[in-house]
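With this grant's support, we have settled on a layout for protein records. An illustrative entry appears below exactly as we store it:
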Amino acid sequence: MAGYYKVELEMLAQLINQLGECAGNMRSAMKELKDIGPKGAGYDELEDACDDFQDKWGYGIGLIADATGGVTEGLSESRKLYEHLEHQIAESFTSSGKAVGK
C-alpha cells in the first residue's frame, strides 16, 4: 500500500534496544574512567587526562544518558500504542465481516 503511513514496529523495537545500550555504555565508560584515575593508570599524564575528562564531561554525559533513557521510555510507550492500534484496526475489519485485502 504505497503512500500510506506505516509504523515499522520491529525497527522501532531495535531502536529502543540500541538506545538503551547506548545509555548503559555511556555510564559504563564514565565509571571505568573514574575507576582508573587518579591512581590506576600508571602514567601521570594519562591520569591527569582522565581526571580532566571526568571534570569536564562526566556531568554532561550523565545528562545525555538520562535523556536517552527518557527517549527510550517514550519510544517504548509509542510502540505499545501503535501495536495496540494496529490490533484494534485489524479486529474492526474482521469483526465487521470484511476480510482485509479483499
Notes: The mean pLDDT is 82. Residues 9 and 83 are 7 Å apart (CA to CA).
